[in-house]
Design brief:
alpha+beta; OB fold (Dihydrolipoamide Acetyltransferase, E2P); five-stranded mixed barrel; 34% strand
């Protein structure tokens, strides 16, 4: 009996000391922009949820209708975005990596990173995870992107105009790097 208690204690210590394999990967602005189709400053117009047997039966997705401006190009953006999970209590389908309820409320102003997923049924614009939605708040009358900490696209709070400048500069740098790679 003592041996079982001792073995359980040792096993518990070992398991708590191991790093957790599933986690949200923090990504810098350049890293996020390399893997996304666009980054846009938008307002959430509508929010709904739906069930889809992708990637497994009875998965629930949230769909956001958004309208705003691409920070990469300055062009108008009006599209729908989806993410796995739902904040609707009737759905009973939360996912730890989905954006927060506060960041995805109808009427909210946000900066979103999304990609066109051709493998998704219906070919949709998909948000990645918590790191893909940045809430915009008015501070002293000016819109500010709320940062998420070191390693994220916007680690600190930044004025929306400065965020636009950073995104545009990163976009141009990525285009130049791609042109260099294509020329080699």
């Amino acid at each position: 009996m003592r041996l079982v208690k001792y073995a359980s204690l040792v096993l518990g210590v070992v398991l708590t000391a191991l790093p957790i394999g599933a986690a949200i990967k923090a990504m810098t602005l350049a890293e996020m922009m390399e893997i996304t189709t666009d980054v846009a400053h938008v307002q959430i117009i509508e929010k709904s949820s739906f069930r889809l047997a992708h990637p497994f039966p009875e998965a629930v997705y949230t769909e956001l209708a958004v309208k705003g401006t691409s920070l990469r190009t300055g062009k108008a953006v009006e599209t729908t975005l989806v993410f796995l999970g739902s904040h609707d209590p009737d759905d009973q389908y939360g996912v730890s990596e989905m954006p927060t309820l506060q960041d995805t409320r109808v009427g909210s102003e946000v900066v979103v990173f999304f990609h066109r997923d051709t493998a998704f049924p219906g070919e949709r614009n998909v948000l990645f995870n918590l790191g893909a939605v940045y809430r915009v708040e008015k501070t002293f009358g000016r819109p500010v992107v709320i940062g998420k900490g070191e390693g994220f696209a916007f680690p600190e709070n930044v004025k929306i105009l400065d965020a636009r400048t950073q995104v545009r500069a990163t976009h141009l740098a990525l285009q130049a790097a791609q042109a260099d790679q294509a020329g080699k």
